[in-house]
From TrEMBL, chain A:
PPR repeat positions: 1032-1066
Organism (species): Vitis rotundifolia (Muscadine grape)
Cellular localisation: Endomembrane system
Keywords from the UniProt entry: Membrane, Protein transport, Repeat, Transport
Domain Beta-adaptin appendage C-terminal subdomain positions: 726-841
Gene Ontology biological-process entries: intracellular protein transport; vesicle-mediated transport
Protein name: Beta-adaptin appendage C-terminal subdomain domain-containing protein
From TrEMBL, chain B:
One Pfam assignment: Clat_adaptor_s
Recorded GO CC terms: clathrin adaptor complex; endomembrane system
Predominant cellular place of this UniProt entry's protein: membrane
Keyword annotations: Membrane, Protein transport, Transport
Residue ranges constituting the MHD domain according to the UniProt record: 183-450
InterPro entries to which the protein is assigned, alphabetical: Adaptor_comp_med_subunit, AP2_Mu_C_sf, AP_mu_sigma_su, Clathrin_mu, Longin-like_dom_sf, MHD
PROSITE patterns assigned: MHD
Subcellular location as annotated: Endomembrane system
Gene3D superfamilies referenced in this protein's UniProt entry, alphabetically: 3.30.450.60, Mu homology domain, subdomain B
Family: Belongs to the adaptor complexes medium subunit family.
A single BP term in Gene Ontology: vesicle-mediated transport
Name under which the protein is recorded: MHD domain-containing protein
Length: 1242, 451
């Protein structure tokens, strides 16, 4: 408590110096110790106050411990509180004396006043003395069961205190279980909140050693618990709400409708005056919608206004915390904020930490439409009295110039800065002008004219001086007095303290010499001499290097020092993207304010409740993260990325398709299937030696660059043969030590690399989701660890029938989107490992990106009206609406309701209610409108209302039929209300005239099929058969799509056969599913069979089928089959799109194999048929092929050909730019640039 | 979750110090204070409200010249902790009536009582002044209100206007009036901070109003309150750009960009008739915060001119015109203008008959300061200043000086035209008629004119 540095501060007169006063107090306390006289309490109060105030200012009053305890026997609550405070502070240092207090605290714990009980319990557990824990268990146990909520509330956090003193005592007394019970049952929300925070801490810290605790911790994130909290959220205090929201942000909903439900429920939290609540809510919204790009964007739009309001209300400090978060969002998606730039203007009275953030935001949001205004504003700040901010502003102007294409006006502004003749302005501007010239050499003329006027004497800052010298060297032919300025600088060599400046000076003098020898010779000599004598090693070395170079050959020196400069296209970003993502994941935490992820500033044990632990030995994960890259190489890397991106897109499509397209040349295309699998089995072991990040793509780039790197045999193996299905034990168990032992003993039986989809990577930011996913496939996690971007997981799985175990190590690098998997197995049979790996592959999460928020807003004026009206007016609006609208053919209740539901479920409900009321009013007797209404209920998942419709049907004496029940069941099922659906089914069974019919069973089957629950689906199928109904087309359609969805392909095939046998002809949907299944299984022969059947029967081939087929052929590298398919399709005169798909597939194949001739033939054939490319991807493949073969003229021809039919995208242009730049073809580069300009990409 | 909470005086003394978890090493207050104090000397301006030293995160807010600090080792939500610190300050003020170093020192035992219940083992339990009442047993020792500056925007009512009972805003929620009787009253303050930037040619570049409706209730029995705002009030500017000045819809409409509400507020009828319903808890709290960028008439026009007058001389003319009704008076006006760094001497010339004006040239930061005690609506005031330089001018003098900034307070005036139409207290008894105070005030936030 007492700061050690206390004595360094001169004591103020009001503060006692210590010793004397303390012993004085001791005496007085003794006098009052046993006194019960009237007024004694008042005297004690004064004394206690003095003690506490000494304690506060840091004087050690622990020597009074005994006296304080003696005085503590009192009924005066104020005295008690002071005494508790004192005891809590000093007990730890006086464990023996602390025993004295136990007695009276324990007694107080049984006081009849709940306040005293609570206070005593709190103090008792705050003593932090290990050998007293035995006295805590009893009072704590009864405290948790106390009838008063205040005591329970205190007890709930006291459990955590006990845990921190002695974890084992706490766990052994079974307190966590009691807390859990309280959490889920206590009526008082603060008790619940304290239980939650205590449990989170306890379980997180236990999780590293106890399986059970980690399961419990996971269970906090289960649906029932989350919903329990969410449904009560408004009863919680604002602080407890933050706690709940933090928990919800980690929850992974099962589907999108759940996401929207949660967001609707929490939306009003965005209007809360407490910024912490709002930010916690925003975090939930952002995390939930990560995988839904367009909804995610809508969230940004929605949270803008509340954030801005928080920034401008409240104190400067609060507004800073919010502004930091706004800053993060702006940096992530500047475009979304580009019209809000005025909010980021600095106010003169803001502290500089706020101004800095705002300047960065202004820089980020600058685009064509607002640059002028932003730069004008920034120029105002440049004249600011606050010099650091003035500097930042100038830098901001420069950054904007570097990120914009039209820099004309900005350059003028910068040059005006130089005329201001303020030293720091000049210095900053010079540095910027230098950077600008490196990117836009075309501005040299204007800049040089101005820079030439600056006297080097006015520039003192090393950075600025270096910039000026660089310009003098680089543009010495344009600056008349460059040699002389340099000469005078060399003359003052000894006064130049910065090595950076001296290095620049050496280089500049040499450059100048090579351009204007006679004038510079003298300066060069002096510079080299001074450089050779320089004490700084780099300067010395560079001078020596230049000297030898000149000695060797002047023209070589010219080539080395003065080659034509290439403009720098992209300056490196200072922060890597995975660091940024990590910060984003830690939204609403200090990471955002510090702008670094938590692992950079927190110790391991304090990293928050959901940081996962790393166990199982030392997990040294490859130090190959991008952080280690030297900045200079970043620029290179950036250019590479431009190319890489296209091939990576390819990879992410088929996760197992590791034989990346670019590798194909190493095999003879036709013999790939056999040759490759042989090769693979040989490579299986040696492959593990290869570092995980030798992705084929890097080879591809090297290849593209024409570096001619021999293709090493170590590149990843081609796709595995179709693995046999493997049944795993769902409840497998294995203890960590056995795992470790086995892992050491067993050889690696399989090692594979995977690429992950971007969504998969996004999902991995919270490993729980991944782990749960794996668990879903009966693969259990035993340990995990690592920090972004590298994660490491250990899994195990057991075969269902026998006790054969598989051990899996999975290393995932989220930045490169690669996963490496090593499998070790008891059973050394490789095929088993392969099938396991296929299952693992399923496990790498690839969240689907279905879009739920399709709002066809503009099309429906009524809808717009309803969305705008307040809830109370909904029915009035509907009443006033012309009947005609509802009868018009393009009016759909369905769309109206689903859209309305997504913004307000109350409104949707009102619309339904209105319809029912209307029907009742019109005395509707027909069954159909009612049925329709029930189906509408299913669209908005409003089961209660469907029941209401049902009731009013009964009330109106409308005859109930099976179809009414079917509709109800459908509504229940699609709202996830299985119980009601089942009881409805029972009612049907027991009723007279509403027996379940074939349609009833179909409903169940189709809903379970959609849910991907193939077991339940099949159960209903058998039930249907058992009830004497035969399966019809709809049944089979649901069955097959359900099986395919849950990847149970065998079953799907069997159902298909069964259907064919029973003489039912399939429909397009079924065929599509079957084909998809076959393609997934890679059974090419069966695919051929099916295809033949379809061709014979002239079945329609859908675009999706074509895509799957092309994917399959592509993997197998069978161009012939593609051609065959094309021929067949052309004969049958299939749809345009399908043909296009096939054409592009063929072209892609050829492009991958670098067969330019074939490729060009195919392109020509396609164009002749009046079709063109579908997506930039295909074109980019072709372009890459040309680049690899360095066939630039042919590339030109190709581009010319497609010009008429296809408009190139920006990414293609970027690819061309990068390619030509690599090849050093500046003329072509210029042409492409012109093309881009024409296309409007600048 | 926080580890420690403490309050430091301006000199760095601990006034209260509470360690909740014992995880942060001793001496944290000392480390913190040194860091904050010497931050500026590292050339980085003020210390940010949150920083990290050796793995310990320090949060602080400045209230009434005191530093309210929290420490933690965990990566917590900064908003939560800063919000909490502010709230603790408010709760303390509710109890002490006045928050300053003196009152805090006198009442530190009471503050410990509060802190005990506000936070338990680092987790926030409650910050409700009302709930805390049942846990607090110390009587506040009241300090003399008149001498000391108080906390919060409401304190401005203390100055200048005699209509307001001065004690009201500094009354503790637990203390009784002399005579043991509690006075039934409720205060509703509409406080607006306005930011305007004028370009050199006098037109408005940006403008914003940040407003708050603050409430402080001393009513017994927690009656329900209805607060009616302008019916012509719309919220959210739809798809339109927020700085779209050409789209003023009708003259009567007040368009807020956005607003948020205290959790006690029910918005059931807000959409229909713009009334807020709430049962006000004890103590001071914001009922509603709002933000407006709709065009409004700025209360002051500033005209600033700087001209060279010879090689080493220049002249500055500052004109301030009050554009509000003459029934309203602004007070404590301060106009500031940075002058060129080589300015050595300034002589001022006020209008004949000017009273209550002060003029000053701050040598250290080369700044001109002009103070006016009050400005009556509709009047205009001018200041001329002759500058003498130590070196010859080069370049454009307007780039060397300015911008002109202004601070002021205008009681009974609000720029947004947002109004509380009525304040209804639901209580059955006829005799019950508590005092209701609805007060408006406008303050400058960033009021700047460029040269």
């Amino acid at each position: 408590m007492a700061p050690p540095a206390q004595s360094q501060r001169s004591p103020s007169p009001s503060q006692p110096s210590g010793k004397g006063e303390v012993s004085d107090l001791k005496l007085q306390l003794r006098q009052h110790a046993g006194s019960r006289a009237p007024g004694a309490d008042d005297a004690k109060r004064e004394l206690f106050k003095k003690v506490i105030s000494y304690m506060t200012i840091g004087i050690d009053v622990s020597s009074l411990f005994g006296e304080m305890v003696m005085c503590s026997v009192t009924s005066d609550i104020v005295l008690k509180k002071m005494c508790y405070l004192y005891v809590g502070n000093y007990a730890k240092g006086n464990p023996d004396l602390a025993l004295l207090t136990i007695n009276f605290l324990q007694k107080d714990c049984k006081d009849e006043d709940p306040m005293i009980r609570g206070l005593a319990l709190r103090s008792l557990c705050s003593l932090r003395v290990t050998n007293l824990v035995e006295y805590l268990v009893g009072p704590l146990g009864s405290g948790l069961k106390d009838s008063n909520s205040y005591v329970r509330m205190v007890a709930a956090s006291a459990v955590l205190k006990l845990y921190h003193i002695s974890a084992s005592t706490c766990v052994d007394a079974d307190f966590p279980a009691m807390l859990k019970h309280l959490m889920l049952n206590d009526p008082d929300t603060q008790v619940v909140a304290n239980c939650l925070s205590s449990l989170q801490e306890i379980w997180s810290s236990e999780a590293s050693t106890s399986e059970e605790a980690s399961r419990e911790r996971e269970a906090l994130l289960s649906k029932p618990v989350i919903y329990y909290f969410l449904n009560r959220i408004k009863e919680f205090s604002e602080w407890a709400q933050c706690l709940v929201l933090e928990l919800v942000a980690n929850y992974v909903p099962s589907d999108n409708s759940e996401i929207f439900d949660i967001m609707n429920l929490l939306e009003d939290r965005l209007q809360h005056a407490n910024g912490a609540v709002v930010l916690a809510t925003i975090k939930v919204f952002l995390q939930l919608t990560l995988s839904m790009a367009d909804v995610h964007q809508q969230v940004y739009e929605r949270i803008k206004a509340p954030l801005l309001t928080l920034v401008s209300s409240g104190s400067q400090e609060q507004s800073y915390a919010v502004l930091s978060h706004l800053h993060l969002l702006v940096m992530r998606a500047p475009i979304l904020f580009s019209s809000d730039y005025k909010h980021f203007y600095c106010q003169y009275n803001e502290p500089s930490y706020v101004k800095k953030l705002k300047l960065e935001m202004l820089t980020a949001v600058a685009n064509e439409s607002n640059t002028y205004e932003i730069v004008t504003e920034l120029c105002e700040y440049a004249a600011n009295v606050d010099i650091p901010i003035a500097r930042e502003s100038i830098r901001a102007v420069g950054k904007i110039a570097l990120q914009q294409y039209d820099v004309n006006a900005i350059v003028d502004r910068l040059l005006q800065f130089l005329e201001m003749e303020k030293d720091y302005v000049t210095a900053e501007t010079l540095v910027l002008v230098k950077d600008l010239l490196r990117k836009y050499p075309q501005w040299s003329h204007d800049c040089i004219a101005v820079v030439g006027n600056i006297s080097s004497k006015n520039v003192q800052e090393p950075k600025a001086k270096a910039a000026l010298i660089w310009m003098l060297g680089e543009y010495s032919q344009d600056m008349h007095d460059a040699p002389y300025v340099l000469e005078s600088l060399v003359d003052n060599w000894d006064d130049e303290h910065s090595a950076e400046v001296r290095l620049h000076l050496l280089t500049a003098v040499l450059k100048c010499f090579l351009k204007r020898p006679p004038e510079t010779q003298k300066a060069l000599g002096a510079a080299l001499a001074a450089g050779l004598a320089d004490f700084h090693q780099d300067v010395h070395d560079r001078a020596l290097f230049y000297y030898r170079l000149l000695q060797h050959n002047v023209s070589v020196a010219e080539r080395v020092v003065n080659p034509p400069k290439q403009a720098v296209s992209v300056f490196a970003d200072t922060q890597s993207s995975e660091v940024k993502d990590r910060i984003f994941d830690e939204f609403n935490s200090l990471s955002v304010v510090y702008q670094k992820p938590s692992y950079m500033f927190t110790d391991k044990e304090h990293r928050g409740p959901f940081e996962f632990s790393d166990e199982l030995g030392s997990l040294s994960i490859g130090a190959d993260s991008a952080d280690n890259v030297v900045p200079a190489q970043r620029v290179e890397a950036n250019d590479k990325d431009l190319l890489l991106s296209t091939s990576e897109k390819e990879e992410s499509r088929g996760a197992t398709n590791n034989g990346s397209a670019y590798n194909a040349p190493m095999y003879d295309g036709t013999s790939v299937p056999t040759g490759a699998s042989q090769l693979q089995s040989e490579l299986a072991i040696s492959n593990t030696m290869v570092p995980s990040h030798s992705p084929s793509t890097s080879l591809a780039v090297d290849d593209l660059l024409g570096l001619g790197v021999p293709l090493s045999p170590a590149s990843p193996p081609p796709p595995p043969p179709p693995p046999p299905p493997l049944k795993l034990n769902e409840k497998a168990v294995l203890d960590p030590s056995t795992f470790q032992q086995k892992w050491r003993q067993l050889p690696i039986s399989l090692s594979q690399d995977y690429s992950m989809s971007p969504q998969g990577v996004a999902a991995l930011t919270r490993p729980q989701a991944f782990l749960r996913h794996m668990q879903g496939h009966s693969i259990h996690c035993i340990a995990s660890g690592g920090q972004a971007p590298n994660f490491k997981f250990f899994f195990f799985a057991q075969k269902a029938e026998e006790l054969s175990t598989f051990l899996v190590e999975c290393i995932i690098n989220t930045s490169s989107a690669k996963a490496q998997i090593k499998i070790k197995a008891d059973d050394q049979n490789r095929s088993l490992s392969l099938s396991l790996s296929a299952q693992l592959n399923i496990g790498i999460p690839q969240r689907s990106q279905r879009l739920f928020c399709n709002k066809p807003l503009a099309s429906n004026p009524l809808l717009i009206k309803l969305l705008q009206e307040s809830i109370s007016r909904i029915k009035t609006v509907l009443d006033s609406e012309d009947n005609f609208t509802f009868k018009s053919s393009d009016f759909s209740w369905d769309i109206l309701l689903t859209t309305l539901k997504s913004s307000s479920s109350a409104k949707a409900h009102l619309v339904l209610e209105w319809r029912l009321e209307k029907m009742v009013r019109d005395n509707e007797r027909d069954l159909v409108p009612y049925l329709e209404l029930i189906f509408l209920c299913s669209k908005v998942q409003n089961v209660p209302f469907a029941m209401q419709v049902f009731n009013s049907m009964e009330a109106h004496g409308i005859e109930l039929t099976s179809s009414v029940f079917n509709a109800l069941i459908y509504t229940c099922l699609s709202s996830g209300n299985v119980m009601t659906a089942l009881s409805l089914f029972e009612i049907m069974q027991s009723s007279e005239n509403c027996k379940p019919n074939s349609e009833t069973y179909n409903t169940f089957i189709s809903v379970y099929s959609n849910l991907g629950n193939d077991k339940a689906m099949q159960a209903w199928y058998f039930a249907k058969k058992g009830a004497g109904f035969s399966a019809d087309l709809r049944t089979y359609e649901s069955l097959i799509s359900g099986c395919v969805r849950s990847r149970n392909f065998d079953r799907a095939d069997r159902f298909y056969e069964e259907m064919m046998l029973s003489g039912i002809m399939p429909n397009g949907q079924i065929l599509e599913n079957i084909l998809t299944g076959l393609c997934e299984q890679r059974s090419i022969s069966k695919v051929e069979q099916l295809l033949k059947f379809m061709m014979d029967g002239e079945w329609e081939i859908s675009v999706l089928m074509a895509e799957k087929l092309m994917g399959l052929y592509f993997e197998h590298g069978t161009v012939e089959k593609m051609e065959e398919l094309l021929l067949n399709l052309m004969n049958l005169n299939r749809s345009f799109e399908v043909l296009q798909q096939v054409h592009c597939g063929i072209i892609r194949m050829h492009a991958m194999l670098d067969r330019l001739d074939d490729m060009e033939y195919s392109v020509g054939r396609m164009l002749k048929q009046g079709m063109s490319f579908r997506c930039p991807d295909d074109i980019e493949k072709v372009v890459c092929a040309y680049f690899r073969r360095e066939a630039y003229d042919r590339l030109d021809l190709f581009l010319g050909h497609i010009k008429g039919s296809y408009k190139l995208t920006k990414s293609t242009y970027d690819l061309l730019v990068a390619g030509y730049r690599r090849a050093g073809l500046s003329e072509k580069l210029d042409l492409v640039m012109d093309g881009m300009k024409l296309a409007g990409f600048f | 979750m926080i580890s420690q909470f403490f309050v430091l005086s301006q000199r760095g003394d601990n006034i209260v110090f509470r360690d909740y978890r014992g995880e942060v090493p001793k001496g944290s207050a000392e480390i913190f204070f040194r860091k904050v104090k010497f931050w500026k000397e590292d050339g980085e301006g003020d210390a940010p409200p949150v920083f990290n030293v050796d793995g310990v995160n320090y949060f602080h807010v400045k209230v009434a010249g005191l530093l309210f600090v929290a420490t933690t080792r965990v990566n917590v939500s900064p908003s939560l902790v800063l919000e909490l610190l502010q709230r603790i300050a408010r709760v303390i003020k509710d109890y002490l009536g006045i928050l300053n170093e003196d009152s805090l020192r006198k009442n530190f035992v009471l503050v410990y009582e509060l802190l005990d219940e506000v936070i338990d083992f680092g987790y926030v339990q409650t910050t409700s002044t009302e709930v805390l009442k049942s846990y607090v047993f110390n009587e506040p020792i009241v300090v003399d209100a008149a001498r000391l500056p108080t906390l919060g925007p409401a304190s401005i009512f203390m100055q200048g206007t005699k209509r307001m009972p001065g004690t009201a805003v500094t009354k503790s929620v637990v203390a009784n009036e002399p005579g043991g009787r509690k006075r039934e009253e409720i205060f509703v303050d509409i406080i607006e901070k306005i930011s305007v930037t004028f370009s050199s040619s006098g037109y408005i570049l940006t403008s914003e109003i940040d407003g708050t409706i603050q409430m402080k209730s001393y009513l017994t029995g927690n009656p329900e309150i209805r607060l009616a705002l302008n019916e012509e009030l719309s919220i959210g500017r739809g798809g339109r750009s927020i700085y779209d000045y050409n789209s003023s819809t009708g003259s009567g409409t007040v368009i807020l960009d956005d607003c948020n509400f205290h959790e006690s507020v029910h918005l059931d009828s807000f959409d229909i008739d713009r009334t807020l319903t709430l049962v006000p808890p004890d103590g001071e709290f914001p009922v509603m915060n709002y933000r407006m960028t709709q065009e409004f008439k700025p209360p002051f026009r500033i005209n600033a001119l700087i001209e060279e007058a010879g090689a080493l001389r220049a002249e500055v003319i500052l004109k301030v015109r009050a554009e509000f009704p003459s029934s309203i008076t602004a007070n404590t006006i301060q106009v500031q203008m940075p002058l060129p760094p080589y300015t050595t001497r300034v002589s001022f010339e006020l209008e004949p008959g000017a009273v209550g004006n002060t003029t000053d040239f701050k040598e250290a930061n080369k700044r001109l300061e002009w103070g006016l005690k009050k400005i009556v609506g509709g009047s205009e005031h001018t200041l001329r200043a002759k500058l003498t330089f130590s070196q010859e001018l080069h370049g454009n003098i307007t780039r060397e000086a300015g911008p002109v900034s202004m601070t002021f307070t205008i009681p009974m005036y609000n720029a947004s035209r947002l109004q509380v139409k009525y304040l209804q207290i639901s209580k059955k008894s006829k005799a019950y008629n508590p005092y209701r105070w609805v007060r408006y005030v406008t303050q400058s936030n960033s009021y700047v004119a460029r040269l």
